[in-house]
From TrEMBL:
A biological process from GO: phospholipid metabolic process
GO CC terms of this entry: membrane
Phospholipid/glycerol acyltransferase domain: residues covered: 57-181
Species assigned in the record: Manihot esculenta
Record's protein name: Tafazzin family protein
The organism's place on the tree of life at top rank: Eukaryota
Assigned keywords, A-Z: Acyltransferase, Lipid metabolism, Membrane, Transferase
Family: Belongs to the taffazin family.
Pfam hit, one: Acyltransferase
Principal location class: membrane
Amino acid sequence: MEWTGRRKLMGGIPRKMVFMAVGGFAKAVANLLNTTSVHNADTLIHLVRSRPSGVPLITVSNHKSTLDDPVMWGFPGFPSFDTNLARWVLAAEDICFKNPLLSYFFRLGKCIPITRGAGIYQEHMNEALECLSNGAWLHTFPEGKVLQEDAPIRRLKWGTASLIVRSPITPIVLPIVHQGLEKVMPENYWFGKRPLFPLCNKRINIVVGEPIEFDLPTMRQMAISMSRNLHFPGKGWPSISRYGLDEAAQRSTSQYDTTHCFGTLKGRVL
């Protein structure tokens, strides 16, 4: 279904129809059925609309429910219906791409299938890198799964960090933390099932952090230096030869990147 993700498919009309429908749904859930407050929304809107030409944007957030995307983008003032400005997003293959119909729909919605447990070098990660090389906006959930317990952000996966390191153009990274969507779409609502429709009269809080611009050359040198003292079983990662990053160096860089992405929001109470 990769062909359905092309911008010019049937003049872009199917994609526009999907974004009109999904954008309307997101705004209804966020603003009509529930109450949404956003801290620092202007920073997100500015980076989506007006970042430097050709510079990619990666937003990262915690994962509270299956409705996080698209409802996160339904708040007032956000360009939810603009297919050119809309995010690409890494989406779980086992949930969003179960059959041809779902695959067609989510592909039109600018979703990239990711297989859980298949590692950072799986096939569609190259598609995500291509989006970044074109200066697009990519959203990821580094936790890798929904976590609705009242607990700190779980250990972050390395895939997002690997995209930052391997992107041909260093992306701007924007961390986002949200709370409340776990009450709009709880995982265990009725006999261990989700509700058929989003619940209402809930409060959704979204905190947008400040953009992070990574000094990748310095970080690569630090990773190479740190990795000399690391000893662990290899996973067979290919070396990034043009930067001199073997597997150990890549793992050192990834650990730092994923932790730092949420560092600016640590301690903030939602």
